[in-house]
Amino acid sequence: MNVFQFILQNRGEVLELTLEHVWLVGFSTLLAMVVGIPLGIAIAHRPRLNKPVLASANIIQTIPSLALFGFLLPVPWLGERADRLAILALTLYALLPMIRNTYTGIRGVDAAVVEAGRGMGLTDRQLLFQVELPLALSVILSGVRVAVVISVGLATIAAAIGAGGLGGFIFRGLSMVDNRVILAGAIPAAILALLADVSVGWLERRLRPR
Amino acid sequence: MKMHFEIKGVFETRVCLAHMPLTVAEGPVIEFRNVSYRVADTEVLCGLNLEVQRGETLVLLGRSGSGKTTTLKLVNRLVLPTAGEVRVNGVANSDGDLIRLRRSIGYVIQDVGLFPHFTVERNIGLVPRIEGWPEERIRRRVEELLQMVGLGAELAARYPHQLSGGQRQRVGVARALAADPAILLMDEPFGALDPLTRAELQREFLSLQQRLHKTLVFVTHDLREALLLGSRIALMEAGRLVTVLAPDEFLRSTDPWASAYVRAFAGGLSPAADRGAS
Questions:
Q1: pTM tops 0.90
Q2: Residues of A with CB below 8 A from B114's CB?
């Protein structure tokens, strides 16, 4: 029996774990966007905040993922459910690309364009939503793209704390020393990462300002 | 909540009173009163006193770093003075609504600053649109403005990157004129253009200004441009106002800075071969 026969035979479980995986990655990416993009905007407008915020996000990034899962385990509300914990950890990892790209994108908007907008009497809000964000959008989206691809890989480790996802196959395969089982987790994960990369990339090109 | 309304009421009364005197129309439209601006230890602008009258074109002439752009940006508060005050229509421009102030003043800069993700139509119609004009009126206004700055109506749907430098600057002028501001601030608007296009735009702009009679403050380092467009020329050097002169006075002036400028431009057109001989 080769890998593909194995996957086909266990298609119910593969599908279930894939959906769990998508849920972990999707929800954490959404959270990271909700937190990271406003933070990126804030530090682009207040240069004094930029070093501490980016440094914190960088430090989070350097914590090994298994260790981070371990650190978060004793936290009261979080530790109760493994998927909660996994989503928080994945969110923390996704923050850095989100914050950094939003910051870079907004700082990269042509100063003359911003000055013209300000001089014409756009409010800060109008300047942000009509000028800065649209012009920074493709850079922000490429941050989302990086974050999603990293998350798909990291989420496999979430299975170590029982959060589900395609990591289930990988860990099982490792303990059984069975490559087919490992690949039954790894191949769908790779396909997910590719799909996410291609679709966000497509969006990025569609929305790129001329 | 009640408190809030009371405070608002008091504020509005104060603003109304400030606008009351009808003699405002007679006074200067823009007035600099002892204005200084410093960044850290650098005095960018020092004790500037200057008035701009209704309908005139005041040219701020000077070298880079002389403070002319800062002076311009003080009017629409892109720069805030560290001392003194700037009055627009008789009211200190630090009073009242900053956004209203800016929307009542057209602003054109050398880099144009067209919004690259907006079509020409949306660029020109931006201020009318955020002011809530009906779409039909915006469309007619854009059409009118395109014609006014000498551009075909077919350009309305283009994006800035599809235009030449001269066309872009024309769109920049049209955009500044969109909500029909009484005051126009222009910061070397023709500086980045090739000489032929520049001369063409200068001529057309002059005839446009003769029709529109905007109160215009125009920054340049080019004496020819200053003489062509200005009703008065304010010469600046190292953050100070040297002198304010009409163009013909400027050419005859004995002021060392003014005559230095005239000399520098007078000999500008002799070919290299003649230089050794003279």
A1: no
A2: 113, 116
